Amino acid sequence: MSTADDKTDPLAASVRSLFEASADGTRFESSLDAKMSDVVDRFLRATTVSTEIDFDALCQQFTSSTIPIAPRDVESYIEHLSADVVRHSINTASPQYIGHMTSALPYFVRPLGRLLTGLNQNLVKIETAKALTPYEREALAMMHRALYARDDAFYETHIQKRESTLGIMTSGGTLANMTALWIARNTALGPRDGFEGVEREGLAAALRHRDCKRAVVVGSALLHYSVEKAADVLGLGTQGLVRVPVDTSGRVIVAELERVIAECKRAGTMVLALVGIAGTTDSGAIDPLPEMAAIAKREGVHFHVDAAWGGPLVLSDRYKHRLAGLDLADSVTIDGHKQLYLPMGIGMVVLRDPIAAAAIEKQAQYIIRADSPDLGKRALEGSRPGMALFLHAALHVLGRSGYAFLIEEGIRKTEHMANLLETWPDFELLVQPQMNILNYRYVPTSFRDAIAARTITSDDNAAINAFNVRLQEAQRHAGQTFVSRTSLRFTRYGADPPITALRAIMANPLTTEADIHAVLQDQLEIGRKLEA
Amino acid sequence: MSTADDKTDPLAASVRSLFEASADGTRFESSLDAKMSDVVDRFLRATTVSTEIDFDALCQQFTSSTIPIAPRDVESYIEHLSADVVRHSINTASPQYIGHMTSALPYFVRPLGRLLTGLNQNLVKIETAKALTPYEREALAMMHRALYARDDAFYETHIQKRESTLGIMTSGGTLANMTALWIARNTALGPRDGFEGVEREGLAAALRHRDCKRAVVVGSALLHYSVEKAADVLGLGTQGLVRVPVDTSGRVIVAELERVIAECKRAGTMVLALVGIAGTTDSGAIDPLPEMAAIAKREGVHFHVDAAWGGPLVLSDRYKHRLAGLDLADSVTIDGHKQLYLPMGIGMVVLRDPIAAAAIEKQAQYIIRADSPDLGKRALEGSRPGMALFLHAALHVLGRSGYAFLIEEGIRKTEHMANLLETWPDFELLVQPQMNILNYRYVPTSFRDAIAARTITSDDNAAINAFNVRLQEAQRHAGQTFVSRTSLRFTRYGADPPITALRAIMANPLTTEADIHAVLQDQLEIGRKLEA
Questions:
Q1: A171 and A84: one domain?
Q2: Which of A179, A411, A516, B204 is paired with A380 by a 20 to 30 Å CA distance?
Q3: Residue range B470-519, pLDDT digits in tens
Q4: Which chain B residues touch A473 with a CB distance below 8 Å?
């Protein structure tokens, strides 16, 4: 219907009323708000992690492919949402869900989530996000200072300068890593001797111009798969990510890195970037950043650090020394939705050099003009929501000391759990934790003597692996507690076979020592049942 | 502090209490909820678009670069937020803000924004998003069916099949376009004759293998700058985006497209994809999709359509014929935060072939296993929030007829405004609208006769351009009403100089005919003042 006359057209009236911020609209909205608060509250108070429903069975409940013709009233939709979707969601905030990098959030982010949706600003340009533009820049400057600690004059100059970019917010760590490598590639293969640069002429032409067959990114064998994805997207190919072996703590072996660099030189391969990790996804291992930074500097190569997980350690005076060398990185990825305790969807890349992002700048005559302060001109994404609201708020409400407490608590509890694991004969600690992630496994009774005597064989490890896969799946299916699993090639047992590890992450401030005990107890019981 | 004893450590107690879903937590949260509702409500009811504060002056209020040490109480932070940030935000929902693609949203998305943050699911894998995984697939299948209208058997097979991908949700249209071209590139340069494919070996090796110097994407001169960004990121270079001239309606000229394709063949340049537009950002123009699809088919080239703006026209029986040929596209970008009336941060690429996304699939031993139903394995992004909540809800609450009403209303009001512009001598309509975007300009009195007589010169146009820039900036600064501006090279006046156009977008269901009149009246008064 395309009439404007609501009186004769009930559909028009009802659709339009959904958009009105009128008295009636407010009344409906308040009642929905209250309902939603109840739904969230019940969800967050659940003592289990998830329902037992089998995933494939759950899928059978979502098989409608036709958009319904008629509108449906909000109430009945919310009932469906609550019963069929929320109920079967994962309580990532549960104190006994210690298997992934998602944890409880501070309560104020939930009302802020509503504000974010209410304001509906678009950070791509100031015409759609006036105050949020300088506000986001302020939050990113705070992150820059926490990492790089430049002086007051530096920040006074750059914090709101249109030509400067201290950091770029992204939807997550994957895009942050990709953005950093995009900048590195475009800088290393920039305009020269009449060549207009990879940005304009493309990668094949850039390599021909340098008379070089191949360009690569070099980093740890344990680099997150987002870096592999970035290598593919950026045209280097996944083989263009050269992975350096790590030691039994999961840290890059510097001598191996030197060997890889020397090999690249011999082969005439151009190294576009060296990538270090501050907190591997598997184990929380921290690469030897000062040594890597020195090599990158010597070779004149961009040094990027994926600190998606570990970056916030810089906020703890007690532990920031573990990230020594991070301030030597040209770019650093940090995830807000990990150890900054913000909702999903907030990543950032922080840039040491305020003009580095010029290498990726794009304008659009019609909208992002060259001289504008629009944030969209130096970013992988275009339109995006004002997620800086969460970051800015949390930096203030928690403060540096609040974050320090959270980081230190996580490490304290990790040490507690590691001690428990070493005293319980049913478990074997596989890697000494460097942060707040633990890799361990359940050892079936028949293998315990061989573990103690260090006489375990590859076949034994294969059997123990299979057992731990079953254990983790049974635990996940039961839904009472949760720990994830991974596959490690760098433990003292070597890579043949890779060792299946249970993976616990100590980040939820609500997780107590009793919770840790309960999770292990749950695994113990499942393990014993499986053995029987 | 790393003690667990809250009694002796007030910081520990206060930080931990922020995370608790306890009785106290709930009480604080409810009070904050109420406050936030007030803030949003006041913001949305404002009759102006923005405050008059100068942007550079506003920036001077955001110059702190140090994270405060001590926590700050939530209440006082929210006061700062409300007074200094919300107040100076842009009321994109205002009925008289008709200049960008952001409009009023249905009220239920605001409580849903809170739910999204409360659930904090991570769609990268089912261990962090159980029900939301099939739920998102269901919403994407509905979009697929709206576009491609395959039969029941097709959807029964693919809707929840792990190997199939009917669409990929992204943070926005930019990433959706990039994902489509990534798939196109990896498919066109896939494994062959011992070559392992661009995905593994990279772009330079892929082109050497094909004995080809250059690979390009071909599309309209009016393609959104995100496609240029994608060409850079994907290693083609911005020169690897070949732009085809458009007619005076802003539509690709098919003969010119044929000429470009023939030239590429002559030069031995490989065409990776042909990109059409369904609703240009400037003018809402729709490319000749059936002709473009036929050419792409003949040449064996991926056909992508950027329907970020126009895609939802398929939901209107009255207007869907304008998008004829869209169902011939291999991939289609649609933005949720545009004409699906969802909050910022929701894009999607819909894929005709359910296995097309295999070309970008990545696994990670430790987390995204090959046989898993995890959505993260075929996506540009990694961790991401459950934005499908908004899409699924709106498809049901508005229904197809609700969306049809919104689309039809926008076109009706556009026609109304176009008629007004043609009768008011102060304005000149520059492009006949094909959808709900209008390009026009204010004509200072001294030029009106020349406009009528069609004797306007380039110098005249330059002067009229400068006048319209001043007019739009004055209007934006005053903050009462808002229309954006753009620069057009395809009007009857040609490209020298490009014509500065005022750009109005008729998408807000709250915008009435009186609002349209008020916006034009505002411009009229500003124009007359500037002339005086």
A1: no
A2: B204
A3: 999 999 999 999 999 999 999 999 999 999 999 999 999 999 999 999 99
A4: none
> What is the domain range of residue A36?
10-91
Query: Are A285 and A434 found together in one domain?
Result: no
Any chain A CB within 8 A of the CB of B199?
yes
Residues 6+ apart with CB under 8 A from A36: A78, B111, B112, B114, B115, B118
State the burial class of residue B195 (Cβ atoms within 10 Å of its Cβ: 0-12, 13-18, 19+). Answer: middle
Q: Report yes or no on A170 lying in a domain.
A: yes
The pLDDT of residue A476 is above 80: yes
ipTM above 0.90, yes or no: yes
Q: Would you call B445 an interface residue with chain A, using a CB distance cutoff of 8 Å? A: no
Chain A residues within an 8 Å CB radius of B400? 67-69
On the question of pLDDT at B2 being above 50, the answer is no
Chain Cα centroid distance, residue B176: 9
Q: Is the dihedral of CA B204, B330, B358, B360 positive or negative?
A: positive
Q: Are B188 and B216 in contact (CB under 8 A)?
A: no
Is the entire prediction scored with pTM above 0.90? yes
Asked if residue A278 and residue A182 are part of one domain, the reply reads: yes
* Mutation site, A52, A100, A117, A439, interface B, largest B CB count within 10 A: A117
Indicate the number of domains in chain B.
3
The three-class DSSP label of residue B59 is: helix
Q: In what order do the strands lie in the sheet with B427-429?
A: B427-429, B437-442, B499-505, B484-488
Interchain CB distance below 8 Å, A172 and B61: no
Give me the torsion for CA of B354, B356, B359, B361, rounded to 10°.
Answer: -20
Q: Are residues A76 and A131 in the same domain?
A: no
End-to-end CA distance of chain A: 67
- Judgement on whether residues B408 and B391 belong to the same structural domain of the protein: no
**What is the phi/psi pair of residue A355, to 5°?**
-105, 10
Q: What chain B residue is nearest to A479 in terms of C-alpha separation?
A: B127
Residue A439 or residue A46, greater confidence = A439
Amino acid at A35: K
Q: What is the pLDDT of residues B93-112, one digit of tens each?
A: 999 999 999 999 999 999 99
Same domain assignment for residues B202 and B225: yes
- Choosing from B397, B426, B457, the residue where a domain stops is B397
Element (H, E) at B177: helix B173-188
| Neighbour count for residue B192 (Cβ, 10 Å) | 11
The dihedral built from the CA positions of residue B145, B148, B149 and B152, taken in this order, carries a sign that is: negative
Mean pLDDT value across chain A:
94
Output the DSSP codes for B83-143. Answer: IIIITTS--TT-TTB-SSS-----TTHHHHHHHHHHH---TT-GGG-TTHHHHHHHHHHHH
Helix (H, G, I), strand (E, B) or coil at B482: strand
The size of the A-B interface in CB pairs under 8 A is 612
Whether residue B260 sits in one domain with residue B235: yes
Q: What is the pLDDT of residues B219-259, one digit of tens each?
A: 999 999 999 999 999 999 999 999 999 999 999 999 999 99
